[in-house]
Amino acid sequence: MRGFLAIARREIAERRAVLSAAAFAGLVPLAIPVARGLTGAGASEVRSWVALIVSAAFGLGLMVAFGLSTLAPPIASRRIAFDFGRPVSAFAIWGGRLAAACVLAIVSALIVWVPAGIVGAAVPWRDLFPSTSLPPLWPLILLAGLCAIFAACHAMSVIFRSRSTWIVADAALLVATWLGISAALSNLPSFLAHEPRVLAMRAFALLLLTGVLVAGYASVAFGRTDINAAHRALSLLLWIAVGAALLAVNAYALWVMAASPADLKKGFWASPAPAGSWTIIEGRARRAHATFLYDTASGRFRRARVVDWNRPAFSADGRRAVWVEGRDGGGPFEVMELALDDPKSNPARTRVFLPSYPALLVLSHDGSRLATVENGVLSIHDLTRGKTLASARVAERSGEVTGFFLGDDRFRVYRQTDTERKTRRLDVLELDAASKTLAKKGGGSEFSDGWLLLAANATGDRLLVIQTRSRQTWLIGGRTGAVLQKLAGEASEARRSAGFLSDGRIVVAERSPQAARLRIYLPSGDEEESIPLPSARPIVLGGEVAAGRLVLGVGEERDGWSNLVDVDSRVVGTMADRLRPAARLASFWQFHDGPEVGSDATKLFYAPDRSLIHLDPTTGERRVILGKDLRP
Amino acid sequence: MTDPAVSPIRMEAVTIRYGRALACQNVTLSVASGSVYALLGRNGAGKSSLVRCLLGEQRPAAGRAFLFGADSWKTRRRAMARVGIVPEEPDAPPAMSARQLSEFCRRVYPSWDAAGVSARLERFGVPAKTPFGRLSKGQKGQVMLALALGHSPEVLVLDDPTLGLDVVARGVLYEEIVGDLADRGTTVFLTTHDLAGFEAIATHVGILKEGRLILDEEIERLKSRFRRIRYASRLTETRTEFGTELDAFEAARVRVRGWGIDAVVSNFSEAAFDRFRSLDGVEDASAEALSLEEIFLAVAGETPEKADEAKGAGR
Questions:
Q1: 3-state secondary structure of A349
Q2: Helix A2-14 × helix B98-108 angle, to 10°
Q3: Torsion of CA A181, A187, A190, A195, to 10 degrees
Q4: CA distance linking residue A597 with residue A503, whole number of Å
């Protein structure tokens, strides 16, 4: 420590002239506003910016100069023998100079700032970092940055002064490092692993900083008065450190990308296919957002590299799934598919490319056709041939459109738009891929302002409309768009969810702070019966485990349960304590993906710890799909 | 202090390379405590490289150098507390004055005689406040010597300390070294071209030639076995050929002059010389003692074959 301090002190004393230069440079921020004739706030702003720029440039410039000049030239000229001829360690020789450089750079930068600071200049942090605040360890980060500059400049100085053939290896390894880090980081965005990417970059930077500092020390400790030996030691240590860092970062990236459903943390979501045993499972796995297609029957899974938290879409028969992948998280986008009924299948390219990310992704019943909507343009693609069959603009914005297939070649579009009367208008259009024509089929109904949730029945001839703001519910004609019936009364405090039963009847779950009930409507919209529910807690409409036997999720995630409602006998029974259904009777995101009666989807439940449980109410068979089964 | 049983300076088969170039090859030597070892050699012979290895400033390609019985590469920091160094090129930071350098040394050495350093600098007439970079070469050397002696080293290593010094400065240097030797019995390892100057001080001498140590011997013994023999040589009835009469002396260098033969021999003895003088055909024979410089010229200034012979003679 004595040697370290002595050398640091000596270096500061030797180079103290830079402090005078800094004091002189500190006059520049004062002079510039005067020279430009600025006064008041304008002058103050200019002073602040110039002071910041000059002081930062002065400090960083000094670190560069010191890094280039304090060690490598004395090693090359052997003048460093003066220090090696004293009882001081190599660490003191390296560290003392590094410390002195840091002190001089920081003090110089402050000296440059002082005159402007005295007349009221302030560091424009808010302009520099408008959306982020300073990290709490910023002084350490600043110091680490200065050390990195010094060490990197020292390394360059040693390399170029040695003029040895090692420089060729250095250049080659530099390129290899760039390729290595690119390889490690480039795939992470497409796995939605933004946090791991930042983490990997920070870890690499930290390892690189450590490597370059250790290598700098090694060049002094093992090179001493021999610049070639210094270069050898520096390169050896540096590239070993860089190699280790690259290995670590690549291994970490591979580990992140190799996540399986078992790695999903609490809070994952399951979206079961309408038929079959597959489900989408998405959540946080290894600090990334992971989306899996998971076969609850076999445990087989495939990861879907979806873009921006979007979900894959299933065909209604549950035999095919599609999703859209981007390159490095951006476009162009390609539609990927997975044949769920083939146990050996892997995600396959469809050769259907989309210029931008689709707001709507709907498969035909058998999955051979795909409808997409991008920037208001609806397209129907033939996935087996990788061709786009028809396209038409259906809306100004993609978010206004939803719809479903009527057979293989016809796609019905529901378009909702705001009117000048501050109402919401619903139009019905159909795109025929065979004739490549877009026709308006009906609509014109206007609803009160606010987004409309739509759910269609199995044949698409009737539609449920829930107004999100008022929670009012209507039954309308699926083709005409005309209002057939208003369901579930006037706007009230009641919260509602609704869906079609397999026999065409309509079920509306209604909950107010005081009571909850299940209203059953005939296909015509006339109310058939009203079943009081035992709890006024939040209600989720699950699937039908058998015709007319509806799963009802009640309560919150931690303390909820499931009831089984027989809509014909009006019996409400407890089905599973502390389990809530994973599937929904009606999805308002996409049509026709409500679970088939008695399908696996109707038997998937979340446990309070967000494990996924398969429970067959008819047999009582219960098994854990993901996580642990914490039975009460 | 130095354990008398341990040589303060030792080298074992030291080889130094710069890329493919060989600076020193297989050098082995040992310096006894209290002795003054002068390592001689022509420019580029590898003396300074050997000094750097000894001081732990450079790692030999093969072999090891020891200071106080420990590998100097590995234990440099500890060893340097007991070693004073005067380098070939004064290498102190140029912006610092002699006084500041002394102050710096005070902070890094376990013990430091700042007053002694000041006194020496005063004696040398070196301005204490002038930046080192502005001093003359002689003054720089004197500052380095003052610093080298500031912590009363057990070993003093001088790498060509008189290079570029005038006669007066050289005299002061000798005086200081002799004074230090007399006071404390410091072990001195020096490289020099100033053979005459150090002849009176050195107790041992080694000669490096083209990276090889071709001679390593006590100086008195060296001087006693080297002589210049001059004689006129004639053929007689009984002497029919030249060239064998010097075999007993192991000639290091033989020159044929107009007046006869001028030879430097490395295995001289009075008895053998008496016999030589009485040889048939040898006339006007005389033997005279050689200075260290003359011996060096005879050994290092010749072809390697001759030099190897001389080394063999010395062993």
A1: strand
A2: 160
A3: -40
A4: 10
Q: What is the pLDDT of residues A477-519, one digit of tens each?
A: 988 988 998 886 654 566 778 899 989 899 998 888 778 889 9
Backbone angles phi, psi at A603, to 5 degrees: -110, 10
First to last CA, chain B: 31
CB contact under 8 A, B93 and A10: yes
Structure tokens that stand for A572 in this block: 């409400």
DSSP β-ladder status, A269-272 and A580-581: unpaired
Kind of pairing, strands B187-191 and B155-159?
Answer: parallel
- The answer to whether the CB of A162 falls within 8 A of the CB of A227 is yes
Task: Give the per-residue pLDDT at A177.
Answer: 92
Nearest to A85 among B19, B59, B85 (CB): B85
Least confident of A207-221, B138-152, B192-206: B192-206
Q: Which residues contact A360 (CB under 8 A, 6 or more apart)?
A: A371, A372, A373, A378, A398, A401, A402, A403, A590
Give me the helices (H) in A271-336, please: none
Instruction: Find the CB nearest B77 among A9, A87, A222.
Output: A87
Contact between B59 and A88 using a beta-carbon 8 Å cutoff: no
Residue B282, both tokens: 């040898």
Sheet holding A483-487, edge to edge: A452-456, A462-467, A473-477, A483-487
> Would you call A618 helix, strand, or coil by DSSP?
coil
Give the one of B87, B107, B110 whose C-beta lies nearest to A6's C-beta. Answer: B107
- What number of other Cβ atoms are within 10 A of residue A17's Cβ? 9
The answer to whether A443 and A400 have CB atoms below 8 angstroms apart is no
Reported in sequence order, the residue ranges of A488-556 that DSSP labels E, i.e. its strands, are 495-500, 506-511, 516-521, 527-533, 539-546, 549-554
Q: Return left, alpha or beta for B296; rule: phi > 0 is left, psi -120 to 50 is alpha, else beta.
A: alpha
* Paired residues of A623 in beta bridges: A614
Rounded Cα distance, A317 and A614, in Å: 20
Q: How, if at all, do strands A506-511 and A377-382 pair?
A: unpaired
Residue A12's CB is within 10 A of a number of other CB atoms, namely 18
Q: Hey, CA dihedral for B113, B116, B122, B125, is it positive or negative?
A: negative
Which pLDDT tens digit goes with each residue over B185-227?
A: 789 999 988 888 888 888 899 999 888 998 899 988 888 889 9
Taking a C-beta distance cutoff of 8 angstroms, is the pair B262, B230 a contact? Answer: yes
- From CA A413, how far away is CA A430, in angstroms rounded? 6
The number of residues making up chain B comes to 315
Q: What is the DSSP letter of B131?
A: B
Chain A positions in Cβ-Cβ contact with residue B150 (cut-off 8 Å): none
Among positive and negative, which fits the CA dihedral B200, B201, B204, B205? negative
Strand A387-393: give its sheet, edge to edge.
Answer: A360-363, A369-374, A377-382, A387-393
Closest CA to A604 of A240, A336, A268: A268
Pairwise pLDDT comparison (B198 vs A246), residue with the higher score: A246
Q: Which residue type occupies A255?
A: W
> Can you say whether the dihedral through the CA atoms of B233, B237, B240, B243 is positive or negative?
negative
**Average pLDDT, stretch A160-184?**
90
Question: How is residue B205 written in tokens?
Answer: 């001498």
Strand partners, A599: none
Q: Is the pLDDT confidence value at A173 over 90? A: yes
Strands A401-406 and A410-418: antiparallel
A159 vs A67: CA distance, rounded Å = 13
The number of residues making up chain A comes to 632
Query: Which of A366, A363, A295 is CA-nearest to residue A323?
Result: A363
Distance of CA A90 to the CA centre of its chain: 47
Instruction: Provide the mean pLDDT of chain A.
Output: 87
Using an 8 Å CB-CB cutoff, list residues of chain B that contact chain A. Answer: 18-19, 52, 55-59, 76-78, 80-81, 83, 85, 87, 89, 91-93, 95-96, 100, 104-105, 107-110
